[in-house]
């Protein structure tokens, strides 16, 4: 599974990082940073959950 972030769309709500801190974090400007481009199998559910809660749909999970 791969994840992609549209950093231009991200508004820094931080919900993704709250749900899945093993996958997402925020930089100093409160914009999402991906900790993995390819998500390990044990973190796939977390990655999907973090993407689902993004209020501006800045995260995309593929595969």
From TrEMBL:
Pfam families: Fer4_15 (PF13459). Keywords: 3Fe-4S, Electron transport, Iron, Iron-sulfur, Metal-binding, Transport. The keyword Transport applies. Gene3D superfamilies: 3.30.70.20. InterPro entries: 3Fe4S_ferredoxin, 4Fe4S_Fe-S-bd, Fe-S_cluster_ET. The keyword Calcium does not apply. Its cofactor is [3Fe-4S] cluster. Residues 1-29 form the 4Fe-4S ferredoxin-type domain. Ferredoxins are iron-sulfur proteins that transfer electrons in a wide variety of metabolic reactions. This is Ferredoxin.
């Amino acid at each position: 599974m791969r994840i992609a972030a549209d950093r231009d769309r991200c508004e820094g709500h931080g919900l993704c990082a709250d749900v899945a801190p093993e996958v997402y974090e925020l930089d100093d400007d409160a914009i999402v940073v991906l900790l993995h481009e390819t998500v390990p199998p044990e973190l796939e559910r977390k990655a999907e959950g973090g993407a689902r809660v993004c209020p501006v749909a800045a995260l995309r999970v593929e595969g």
